[in-house]
Amino acid sequence: MTKLTPKEVMQKLADGISADQWQDLHLLYAPDTVVRHPIARDQSALLETRDGLKRHFERFFATGVKLRATPIEYIDTTDPEVVIGTFTYHGENGFGMDRFDLEACFIWRVRDGLIADTTDYLGPPVTPRD
Q1: According to the model, what pLDDT value does residue 98 have?
Q2: How far does the chain reach from its first CA to its final CA, in angstroms?
Q3: pTM (two decimals)
Q4: Distance of CA 31 to the CA centre of its chain
Q5: Within a domain: residue 127?
Q6: CATH number at residue 66
């Protein structure tokens, strides 16, 4: 089977989140993955292992928050394992807001088609302008 490129992996995660298909997203991560959310002030600031990601996604899905990602803009790197993508999540029913926008910048190392290490910058959530 052909392994996904780093950009394809990032797109697959964004598509899965946008389609509320949370149940298998953890399978995009390596078993010993490390995920950092430097701006987070809760248990999601540091997530380790694929199983830890599975629990994180289950908790998030249970909140009922809906997220839809805009098209990802990629920033080229010279390292074939590294992908950097920026986009906006348009969300509903979260952070005490009916609707919100959440800017995102993901910096990932993808090895053998799986997310090995990532630093994800998210937020803060803002009410969108009409």
Answers
A1: 86
A2: 45
A3: 0.91
A4: 17
A5: no
A6: 3.10.450.50
Question: What does the alpha-carbon distance between residue 29 and residue 95 come to, in Å, rounded to a whole number?
Answer: 26
Task: Examine residue 40 and state whether it is found in any structural domain, yes or no.
Answer: yes
Phi-psi region at 88: left, alpha or beta (left = phi > 0; alpha = psi -120 to 50): beta
The closest of 9, 18, 38 to 122, measured between CA atoms, is 38
Three-point CA angle 107, 80, 17, nearest 5°:
40
Return the percentage of the chain with pLDDT > 90, whole number. 76
- Beta-strand ranges (E) seen in 5-96 are 29-36, 46-48, 66-69, 73-75, 82-94
Q: What is the domain range of residue 103? A: 6-122
> 128: number of CA atoms within 13 Å, CB side?
14
